[in-house]
Amino acid sequence: MKYVNADIVLPENLLKEVQKYIHGGMLYVPKPEGIKAKWGENSGGRAYLTHRNNEIRNQYRAGLGIEHLAEQFCLSCDSIKKIVYGKK
């Protein structure tokens, strides 16, 4: 999280109102509900798992077995089955 000086970003009247409640401390301002990023969107984790799961599905369709895929991707057979037989 990046630190931003309130003197720079807030209008003077709003700054004075905030200072009534907290002065000299740090204040976290959350994003509005509709703007929150989903899990893994900022870090790239979601894209990585999507790519990995697509690769597992493609290799399964090409004829590789569940056990082989589990060993190759370091996942349990049950996890591979969920990816292969799940919706997508």
UniProtKB/TrEMBL annotation:
<dbReference type="InterPro" id="IPR049739">
    <property type="entry name" value="YraL-like"/>
</dbReference>
<protein>
    <recommendedName>
        <fullName>Mor transcription activator family protein</fullName>
    </recommendedName>
</protein>
<dbReference type="InterPro" id="IPR009057">
    <property type="entry name" value="Homeodomain-like_sf"/>
</dbReference>
